[in-house]
Design a protein that fits this description.
Elements: H1 2-88, H2 91-94, E1 103-108, E2 111-115
Antiparallel strand pairs: 1-2
Length: about 120
């Protein structure tokens, strides 16, 4: 009876060790699942943040293009008076004769020629 008791006790310890291993393994699996859920949620939030920044970046690009077009418009508006000033200050233009009496001859529809009456 001693031998049976001893072998039953030894087997009981082994089954108790197996239960302990299964218990810890179950906790590891649960922890892994929980960690996967937390990391998945974090990944989802990160992707959402990046998508939102992408829309903001696209809006800023559109605004930059409109400002660039406005700047080009102002450059053209400034270039016109500057070119007229350059024409008026040109020596060739300043040496031209001033016409007091202007006579026009209609050549075709919408086209005229100036007659030179000395």
């Amino acid at each position: 009876m001693n031998i049976i008791h001893h072998s039953v006790t030894n087997g009981n310890r082994r089954s108790q060790a197996g239960v302990t291993v299964n218990y810890y393994f179950a906790w590891i699996v649960r922890g892994g699942i929980l960690l996967s859920l937390v990391l998945g949620f974090f990944h989802l939030m990160l992707l959402n943040s990046l998508a939102t920044q992408g829309f903001a970046l696209e809006e800023l690009k559109t605004e930059r293009i409109s400002i660039q077009q406005e700047t080009e418009g102002w450059d053209i508006a400034l270039a016109i008076p500057m070119s007229l000033y350059a024409l008026q200050s040109s020596e060739q233009v300043q040496e031209m004769e001033k016409v007091d009496k202007r006579n026009y001859l209609y050549v075709r529809e919408g086209e005229v020629a100036m007659l030179n009456n000395w």
